[in-house]
Amino acid sequence: MGDSIPLYHGPIFLESNAYTAMLFFTLLLTINRFTIFIFPRINNILFSVKNTLKISCLIWIYTLITMIIHRITGCVQFFDKSELYFYYNCTEQIRNGYEMDNFLFYQNHLMAIIMCLLYVIIYVKIRMVHQNVTRAFKTETIFLIQTIPLTVLLGIGMLSFKLVPLLNITGRYRFFVAAFENLIIIVNEIASPVLLLIFNRDIQKFSTNIVPNPLHTIKHNEVRGKNPDERILSNYHLR
User: What's the number of CA atoms in the CB half-sphere (13 Å) around residue 75?
Assistant: First the structure.
């Protein structure tokens, strides 16, 4: 791998940028669920297709700028190749670098606090209208259930990345800690598409069309080889 920009520093910079962007997108998803329950009219305007794309672009631009400033002020992220974990080396920080460090620290934790508060408000709203549950409200609740695990996993990741380095674990035990941290990263990355596949019926139907059920295909081929009367009976049983 070496220490070249395209093979080492470039991917590491993209990783730190993607992690910060993931925090913002999780917050954006939480705000989306919050406005669905509390301010549905605002939700229709704020989260239209065009506005969602604009907000997404602004998030990427903002995270890119903040990560560049963080790098310029002397806080560099590295990857330990022997123990497989990311870490920051901020020994060459200039004065403004410490201010940028504090800003990013409080920014990330403030987002987590805001998400928790929004979920508390949504929970109170659900309890208030529990006696008069409509089909649309049940659908909105499913969307909420889809979002909560993402926030919980993200919170676990933030806590582990902040607390584990304070334990000063060294030696062979560091390998297990690195494996745990990498597992959290992988789970955070795959959680969103997996939850979308589980809860979204449109995605389920689309996935079924792309990857057909082999048992259904075998039965369909067996039916094609039968006479018309047998096909009618077979179709009846297939249903």
Answer: 18
Packing angle of the helix pair 49-72, 10-38 (nearest 10 deg): 140
DSSP 16-51: HHHHHHHHHHHHHHHHHHHHHHH-HHHHHHHTSHHH
The distance in angstroms from the start CA to the end CA of the chain is: 56
Q: Are 94 and 73 in contact (CB under 8 A)?
A: yes
Residue length, the chain?
239
Which of the four pLDDT bands, split at 50, 70 and 90, describes residue 234? very low
Dig out the tokens for 222 from the structure.
């067996």
CA distance 90 to 71: 9
Tell me the per-residue pLDDT of 164-204, one tens digit each, with 9 for 90 and over: 666 777 667 777 777 777 777 777 767 766 766 666 665 55
| Domains and their CATH numbers in the chain | 5-199 (1.20.1070.10), 208-239 (no CATH)
Report yes or no: 13 and 67 within 8 Å, Cβ to Cβ. Answer: yes
Closest CA to 108 of 34, 186, 32, 27: 27
Strand partners, 78: 87
